[in-house]
Amino acid sequence: MEEKIIHKLFPSPVFQFKLKNYKDLNEKLSKYIYNLKNEDNEGIKKSNVNGWHSKNFKVEKDNAPYNFIKNIHGHVKEVIVDGFGWKYIPERVGISEIWAIINTKGTFNKSHNHPGSYLSAAYYVKAPSECGNIHFYDPNEIKKFNSPAIENLTELSTSGFSIKPEEGNLLIFPSYLYHDVGENISDLDRIVISFNVSILPTKK
Fold first, then answer.
1. Strands across the sheet containing 134-137
2. Based on CB atoms within 10 Å of each CB, which residue in 113, 170, 177, 193 is the most buried?
């Protein structure tokens, strides 16, 4: 039998982590986010369709966002160093934006990506059953316009991937990946924290 090698070129990974102390962390984050909503019920409009989107968090020493960032810092570094093999200089890597979205029943997020950053993330504070999966889409635009009929779906033929949210799960992915969130059909709130990671160029 002749040897066969498949070179799977240019993958678009989504890294998934489970935070160890997520229950205590989520309790404090939930309280912080609901307080923000009480202070600014209108929020802002981006990808959210009828859901509530906060303004960027104010990260202050020992507040809930500050402690959250401390908890996920190691995972961000792991993605940069072990995942992508990028050069890691701590003072040149940072979270440029961080916010929360509350999706109540009947709300969802339309397809979008996060231009202007290298990595983006979703962290689940509240994720009841049937609250809406996150869907990622193949960044290869040509496949959308010219693709043969698929008889057996494989990782090479699929154009999308869905992940069910679970409380305490952190997803980190390239910012160029388009993604959306399905409709929350539960009676409970879906709360996610999203953030972008920027890496400043190294000085010459």
1. 48-49, 108-112, 179-181, 134-137, 160-163
2. 193
Asked if the model's pLDDT at residue 141 lies above 90, the reply is no
Closest CA to 136 of 7, 9, 16: 16
Closest CA to 120 of 43, 199, 22: 199
- β-pairing, 52-53 with 93-103? antiparallel
Residues 6+ apart with CB under 8 A from 80: 86, 88, 93, 119, 197, 199
d(CA 132, CA 183): 5
pLDDT of residue 138: 94
Q: Phi first, then psi: give them for residue 141, nearest 5 degrees.
A: -65, -35
Contact 185, 162 (CB under 8 A): no
Judged by DSSP in three states, 43 sits in coil
Q: Are 50 and 106 in contact (CB under 8 A)?
A: yes
- Other CB atoms closer than 10 Å to residue 100's CB: what's the count? 26
pLDDT digits (tens, 9 = 90+) for 105-133: 999 999 999 999 999 999 999 999 999 99
Q: Are strands 169-174 and 48-49 parallel, antiparallel or unpaired?
A: unpaired
